[in-house]
Design brief:
about 160 residues, alpha+beta, Alpha-Beta Plaits, about 25% strand, globular
Amino acid sequence: MNNSVYIGLGSNMGCKRDNIAQAVALISAIPGVNIKNISSLYETEPWGKTDQDKFLNQVIEIETSLPPKELLRELQNIEIKMGRQRQEKWGPRLIDLDILLYGNEVLDDPQLIIPHPHMRERLFVLVPLAEIGADLRFPDNGATVREVLSSVLAREGNRGIERI
């Protein structure tokens, strides 16, 4: 059975645009994965640790038969293959790949939480996600991506996210 999965991509080191493009190509090469939709690229301010370069972010929709943890392992292997080193929480990164939504799954495991635990606070996730899936519903509370994005924008405004 194939599931619709949304993955967030981010980079703020090196040639960011090339890093994102390479990650998308490597994701599309995973056996059992088919890319269905790709958002625009967005330049965004860093979140969490703010004294670093701006990010490029994107969200892609894939269709896959891989179980969530197996997909996570594949994404982590791509990060390693591309040279990512996890040196500090929310620090600079060559590439970051996060499973945001996986079908209607709700998963709370030490290795993987779905929906992604911080995605409802992050414009760099919500804006590109809304571009390709505004009517998606969060499986844990039924809210749509559009509703959550509107709420965050009303509360915080558009804090430094620009479509490129």
